[in-house]
Amino acid sequence: MFFIITQSSCRAHNSRLAEVQTKAQSDLLMNLAKTNGPGQSYWLGGRDDVIEGIWMWASTDRAFNYTDWYPGQPDNSGGNENCVHMYAAWSLKWNDDPCKTAYRFICEKDILFLIKKSSCHEHNSLLAEVQSNTQSDLLMNLAKTYGPGQNYWLGGRDDVIEGIWMWASTDRVFNYTHWKPGQPDNDGGNENCLHLFGAVAMKWNDAPCTNAYRFICERE
């Protein structure tokens, strides 16, 4: 899962600077940045301080296989621009800059991914659980990017006590919700699982747990 830190480092939150492998991930981070801090610039986890001009992700030393540089960048202006950030002045396109510049950080910790047919357990993961509006927006953007119009299971259910919605991995009662108006309604008496409803802008809905929807999973 991606999240934003304003002053402290990602390591202080047992995470790392975000790494971007695809355009879909890039779009997701841009939406996150625009939602949480429009006009701010954000560090990512790329650098070229090992070999000048060879950009790699810091956690793996793998060369970039996707980039979103602003035209003319990277340019290593001043000879010491060895870190990559999303530059607010250039619509969050990538730019190189000195690593000590005081920008915000986009960190990643849990891995969120979509499964079309198989269950999360087969991928050593759990159905995603949502604790805040920021996390909800992130999942909605993820779902819209990878499969607009599709429905996606989350990890909530009320099959223990009808009407008491809890996260399956912890049995904790929801402290945040994003229900479609009029939901949950337990239509038919057997709607005990929670999903993002593609037909209504990814708002939450209850449905029978056996419905054939996609899954959003998370793991450390």
Automatic annotation (TrEMBL):
The lineage of its organism: Eukaryota, Metazoa, Spiralia, Lophotrochozoa, Mollusca. InterPro entries: C-type_lectin-like, C-type_lectin-like/link_sf, C-type_lectin_CS, CLec_Tetranectin-domain, CTDL_fold. This is C-type lectin domain-containing protein. It holds the Pfam family Lectin_C. Keywords: Disulfide bond, Lectin. It comes from the Eukaryota. One of its GO terms (molecular function) is carbohydrate binding. Residues 7-108, 117-218 form the C-type lectin domain. Gene3D superfamilies: Mannose-Binding Protein A, subunit A.
